[in-house]
Amino acid sequence: MLYSAYELQRNWLAGASALAAAGAEWLGNPSNPFGYLGGGPMFAAALDVFAHAAAPRGKPAFGLDECEIGGRSVRVTEEIVHRLPFGQLKRFCREGVEGDPKLLIVAPMSGHFATLLRGTVERMLPGHDVYITDWRDAKAVPLAAGHFDLDDYIDYVRAFLEVLGPGTHVLAVCQPSVPVYAAIALMSAEDHPCTPRTLTMMGGPVDTRRAPTSVNQLAMERPFSWFEHNVIARVPQGYPGAGREVYPGFLQLSGFMAMNLGNHLMSHWEMFKHLVDGDGESADATKAFYDEYRSVCDMTAEFYLQTIDRVFQRHLLPKGELVHRGQRVDPSKITKVGLLAIEGERDDISGIGQTKAALDIATNLPDALKHYYVAEGVGHYGIFNGGKWRTAIAPVVEDWILAHNG
Length: 406
Description:
Helix content: 40-55%
Distance between the termini: 55 Å
Strand order of the largest sheet: 1-2-3-5-4-6-7-13-14
Number of helices: 14
Order of helices and strands: HHEEEEHEHEHEHHEEHHHEHHEEEHEH
CATH architecture of the largest domain: 3-Layer(aba) Sandwich
Radius of gyration: 22 Å
CATH superfamily of the largest domain: Alpha/Beta hydrolase fold, catalytic domain
Number of domains: 2
Shape: globular
């Protein structure tokens, strides 16, 4: 019922959005005399804001067609290197450029598409051979493809690293810090030749007992059964994954919006004022952010519930109790991988110390292979996107990769 009700609302809003967009265009037309009346610009701006907020959204494109290397523009194309039912390994091929360090960016499976890391990819492209985990929307995966849980996530990371081969560097943004860390601990225990040279974790919930945020407290305050019965829905007919149990992306989005509702309301108020004043460029910047932010996807129920249980409620990794397909994940087996933990001073998703815990539990890793960096004045999103990421945080990542590139 939950998903069907959402679909009904989404379809209604799609029609309302189209009407509002048409009204805004009509009022904003220079040849329309009504647009010059006292309230014309204000009504046009209000309709434009509503149309943008209510419009349905699908998976965005990365849109990274070129990058600048050594003062010249280089063409960039996307290539699918490896394809699995719930995700694919995508490469950003730079025409005529070879020999740079291989960098696997592991995108979060937390309700948004991998394109949320467009700014991360764009910043790392000039100096690295960049790959990214492009996770699929669970409602687009047929039931015949089977299930996908936290163990499968770890297997996918290992499979992607084996495709890339030895000497790879990994950047895990937020949620994947735990499964990627687990995959690397397991590969280290086997002395696997494709164990990466470095792992950078940014704003990851490695140990959410440290400086718990409202997100962590929500997971701890409610029993596991509450999540099973209240946030899991079945994909309705009309999608390839009809019948699959999922944690819907629209629920994740509503939760994130509610956490900072005042900020989001102010952003839309500022966008409205820019449109009234005719400042389309500033309004477009806000629109671009929300186009990405509101583009959400579903997670499989089993992956979501296992993450709640193992990561946020029982804290199995930092306790040394996480088990993957019968094998204990032992952080002390990590002895050769350079670990970099990055946290944002104002992160309201993963609190200070939660990512740093990854360094503490790697008890047999030499201090020379550990590094911790706190980005001052930066929130969760700003760790991997925006000006602070480009000018202050990315250079730390680049230096770490270069220092351990063999």
